[in-house]
Amino acid sequence: xxxxxxxxxxxxxWRDPAAKPFVHIDNxxxxxxxxxxxxxxxxxxxxxxxxxxLGGSGCGKSTLLRMLAGLEQPTSGRILxxxxxxxxxxxxxxxVNMMFQSYALxxxxxxxxxxxxxxxxxxxxxxxxxxxxxxxxxxxxMMPFAxxxxxxxxxxxxxxxxxxxxxARQPKLLLLDEPLAALDKKLREHTxxxxxxxxxxxxxxxxxxxxxxxxxxTVSTRIAVMEAGxxxxxxxxxxxxxxxxxxxxxxxxxxxxSIEGRVVAQEGERLQIRSESLGCDLVMxxxxxxxxxxxxxxxxxxxxxxxSEQAPAIVYNTxxxxxxxxxxxxxxxxYLVRLPTGQQMRVQLTNLARLTENPLTWDQEVxxxxxxxxxxxxxx
Length: 380
Known about the structure:
- By secondary structure, the protein is of the alpha+beta class.
- Helix content is 22%, strand content 34%.
- It contains 8 helices and 20 strands.
- The strands form 4 sheets. Strands 6-7-8-3-9-10 form a 6-stranded mixed β-sheet, with helices on both faces.
- A hairpin with a 2-residue loop joins strand 1 (23-32) and strand 2 (35-45).
- 36% of the residues are buried.
């Protein structure tokens, strides 16, 4: 999953104990009737970040975004933006703007009129408005379409207009509520890179809500994975993907093979696990000590598995099964392998050679293996 960041050394203020957060969410809770939409969330976001709130429907991410915008009031807790308590400040008085999923462009106005609208409301001079509008239109390559109305634009063009209209008033913080959901897959992928480039050029702090894990992985400096109103993990895309903090995070971010077992022994960081669901013993790297007999779940990503027609030399972390299905996706092929125990394993292989026929196919017996440090162990 690509990270389209610039070649410059990445700025990671969250690793600096002396760095002050730009947005500080302090033990915020939001209750609707008896339902906890957001439950005791504490979160720090730093200046210039492209931060993503990621989770499924009903996890609380949109409610948290609306509280940052001032459209909802917390039941308890505080929200500070640039060191100022904004918890009870109305939306129009916050240094924040919000881009909605629907874009909400004025249909009777041209592109340039839409972008200029907020500046006119703030009583800026005509010269300043023209200069700022032209600069933003150039930023997203929309100058040739300045006199068109929204109905004359494509979905991607409307998305760009909505973005620069949100940036026209130079907010300190821009909130994006699933801004790419209405675009088709190819355009959405292209626009993700555009969003990152624009955010880096203007330097505004972005906080985006999405349920699409690939989208979050592509655009964000860091991700907060939410479930049932709480944050389960905060980290860079790579750390959340490779080192998930819980089984839910592992299964939500990308595909994963979940294997049940019990601890047999542990020597240093090497954990021996007996798995009846696989019918074999596993050896995994795990730093924390676990007592013998502890039930665990081993999570292994499909791309970490090696598939071969011949038995590998290693005797652990190796299973044999039959391919029951596969999908050719161009750059990769996905295989579903059923083991004698009934467990199904998902394997992802990169298509390095130019072949018109897959080297592995239905009903073929294959060996699957993986290294001890290729997965994560969670106590069940």
